[in-house]
Write a structure and sequence with these properties.
By secondary structure, the protein is α/β, with parallel strands linked by helices. Among the domains are: 8-119, Immunoglobulins (Immunoglobulin-like, Sandwich), CATH 2.60.40; 142-147 and 390-542, TIM Barrel (Alpha-Beta Barrel), CATH 3.20.20; 556-638, Golgi alpha-mannosidase II (Immunoglobulin-like). The protein is built from 16 helices and 29 strands. Helix 7 (306-322) runs parallel beside helix 8 (338-351) and helix 11 packs across helix 12. The longest helix has 19 residues, at 524-542. It binds calcium ion (CA).
Length: 669
Amino acid sequence: MSDVFSTNDFESAYTYEGCDLGAVWSSEKTSFRVWAPTAEAVWVSLYQSGNPASDDLMEYFPMIRDVKGTWIAEKNGNLNGIYYTYLVKVNGRIMEACDPYARTTGVNGQRAMIIDLASTNPEGWDLDCNPNPLQSFTDAVIYELHVRDLSLDKSSGIRNKGKFLGLIETGTKTKSGIPTGLDHIKDLGITHLHLLPVFDYGSVDENHLEVPQFNWGYDPVNFNVPEGSYSTDPYHGDVRVREMKQMIKGLHDNGISVVMDVVYNHVYHAEEFCFNKIVPGYFCRVIDGTYTNGSGCGNDTASERSMVRKYIVDSVCYWADEYHIDGFRFDLVGLIDVDTINAITTEVHKTHPDVVFYGEGWTLNTQPTKPCELAVQKNCHLTPGFAYFNDTLRDALRGSVFFSDALGFVTGAVGIGEKLEACFRGLPAWCGDPNQTVNYVSCHDNNTLLDRISLAAPERNMNDRIRMNKLAAVFYMTAQGIPFMQAGEEMLRSKPDGKGGFIENSYNSSDAVNSLKWDHLDIPQCRDTYEYYKGLIAFRKAHPVLRMSSVYDILSNMIPVPCENEHTGAFRIRGDVCFEPADELFLVFSAADTAQTIPLPDGIWHICIDGDHAGTESIATIKGSVTVEPLSAMVLVKGALEQTRVSERISSHPTLECLSGTGSALFRK
Ligand code: CA
């Protein structure tokens, strides 16, 4: 069937556009609709429990063939809390499958549960909203976290270890009284908390949570259901829904927006995936009987097919609507076609214009089942509402992820000035819009920043490595684009392998490797690095000129400054734009081993950031020239340090570029 599924004839006959797929609950009845165009017959099975090991079938009844390849059935009564599956007869064989549109499930995601979703809403949910509705995507500061990592180490002081609820415990401290968990994240000042997969994935057995199990979770089983192991009770389907909403509400109440890591590009097991059981071979790309494997996980999603596209669009809209999710990070989005990505961003932005979208636009070896363009970096102009991880910046600053001893700017690489300059403007070679580049130097993949620096600079002492770390941080936190960091980068996170090396891929390593070690904050160097990151974020937030959203503004206001040393670069940024309070910023980045002196433009300059301190306030003032110490950055401000004179500036602003022209320009209170 694989060839037929992607034909126009099949798509016009069997594309269902309604919004009632799945089990739609009301207190009087529940209606079922499933898309199964190749089925000969379909039944609904009802169960007492969600545990596939329990022999508690209540009844089963046939579905009736309806429009566009769908099948329907209705059952009277209040079925809230009843579990169900579909029995689907295809090619003479009967398969039992969970509902692809399941809203929740029992343990391990095998049986769907009929649910009254409103009953799972926390108090105040109707009024809950995104606490950071950005003017521009470049206003976001994203912090990437695995649910388990936050709380597992005993120094976290968090009670709900490894659970959604652990993310909203406040008042938690290390033994020496340093805030941990949510209090730490809130104090750091990030806007968006990006969670590694929290939908139902397959690599943790929810039946044995008494045994510590760790996995990043890039192995989807149910795309529209929260992961059971993060709930306090994976057996009762309502609990995971309720607790995930509670977590989101708690984060929102603390000023933190929530981003979900979504993995639509592949599934855990192609044959076992419920959609493929119901419509064999439809969900995945199968060419000449073989699954394509650009994902490296054994299968790639055929997003170019109409009902896969609809499924993904429906799923993202569901998380945005039902769970108030504020952003989506797409795993290996380079496997998904641009029409699907645009359908998602357009549909979600209709009702949630502030939702951010970004993903991994790597070019991968897949084969779509019909001609289409894929959402890879070089096609970013085809997906204007969607941003991509900037590996150009990552590799230029810290060195390639493919050669662990390769140098980056901070560890001494030279000859990459053009690349760095383009990235600092938010305009790497593949990208023409600062809203589409996610600037980072570490994420869950590959070595942590400090570990990567240690690998490239083994001859350096720890003090120098920390200076290199801070230098990288200043660069990407002041670059145009969207800054992104891995949790713990701000406290020198490391993943030692116990043999003098470091773990590069900790997807199923122990909690001991992965968890955040809060008591490291008792170590002065970690504590100091944390304060430094906090200062960088505050500085970024205080200066809109670091968050320009228009290319015109960037090109007209950012001026590179020639430096003599090949390890040193500098930029002036004029403040006549975006209601920037300062008249001008001067930024210098130096990986040189000796101090460098650079002439300054006229005027008195405040030092806000140097190799040791970062923040919005003036450390000292200078004029004439600036001397930057080895392995460090300096950020200088001329004029106002904070946005206290904005109304005055609006009335006296000579050009008001921000209010005219592009339409994407920023306007801030
Ligand atoms: Ca699971």
